[in-house]
Amino acid sequence: MTSPLLDSAWLEPINSVAPKKLHFHESSKEQCYYPFIVKNRSVPTDTILPHVMYRDVEEAIAWLTRVFGFTEHYHHGDPSGPISGAQMYLGNAYIMLKRARPGCASPEQLGYGTQSLTIFVDDIDSHFQKAKAGGATILEEPHETVYGERQYAATDQDGHHWLFSKHARDLSPEQWGATLTKH
Questions:
Q1: For residue 45, what pLDDT band results from cuts at 50, 70 and 90?
Q2: Torsion from C-alpha of 15, 17, 23, 24, nearest 10 degrees
Q3: ∠ CA(117), CA(118), CA(124), 5° rounding?
Q4: Of 178, 135, 182, 172, whose CA–CA distance to 156 is shortest?
Q5: Per-residue model confidence (pLDDT) at position 2
Q6: Which pLDDT belongs to residue 36?
Q7: Residue 59: partners with Cβ closer than 8 Å, 6 or more residues away
Q8: Cα first-last separation, the chain
Q9: Cα–Cα nearest to 38, from 62, 17, 67, 63
Q10: Is 109 in contact with 123 (CB distance < 8 Å)?
Q11: Residue 16 scores a pLDDT above 80
Q12: CA distance 73 to 173
C-alpha cells in the first residue's frame, strides 16, 4: 500500500532502526511497515530549534540579515497582515522568529533577558566588525574563553543576547576546571 502523503523525496532510509508501523487512516484494517522515517524539510531534527520572540518579525528578519548575516529560509502569516513567524539560519544554526503576542514578550519589552543563543561562525573577527558596524550592542569584545572558544557577545534590537563563537583550542572539560558527570 502506498500513501500519497509519503513522497519518496521526503523519506530517509534508516537501516539500523527497526521498521516503523504506520496507520494511514483510522478506519483502515491494513497496517504497513516501512524501514524509514519521514524527513520534513521545514524543521531540522538534529538540533535544538529556539523560537525567539520579536515585536516586529519583518524588521527582525531585515536586522538579523544585515547585522548578523542570517539568511531567511521562509516566513509565514496572514497575507493581509504582518509576518507572524519565520525560520532563519546562519551556517548550520537555525532559529524560528515569532511575533510577540499577548502573554509573550521580547527581552526589550520585559526589561531583562531570559536566555543566550550561541552561534558558531568561521571568522569571529570579521563577524564582530560587521555586527558592531551594523548597530549591535556589543557586550563582550572578541576574546578567548577558559574553555577554548574565541567569542564575543552582543544584543540585537529587541534585547536578545547572542554569543558568536569559534573553536580556538581543543580542551577537555577537566583541563579548564569542569567536573565531568560519570554515567
A1: low
A2: -30
A3: 135
A4: 135
A5: 43
A6: 53
A7: 157
A8: 44
A9: 17
A10: no
A11: no
A12: 35
Neighbours of 67 (CB within 10 A): 19
Query: Residue holding cell 536566555?
Result: 115
Residue 68 CA to residue 103 CA, distance in Å, equals 28
Within 8 A by CB and 6+ apart from 57, the residues are: 75, 77, 82, 83, 84, 85, 86, 97, 98, 99
For residue 100, the SS3 value is: coil
The model's confidence at residue 142, banded by pLDDT at 50, 70 and 90, is very high
Write the DSSP string, 152-175: EEEE-TT--EEEEEEE-S---GGG
Sign, Cα dihedral of 105, 87, 126, 46: positive
Averaged over 115-144, what is the pLDDT? 96
Set of cell numbers at residue 162 = 547572542
| Mean pLDDT, residues 156-160 taken together | 94
Kindly give the pairing relationship between strand 149-155 and strand 137-144: antiparallel
pTM: 0.72
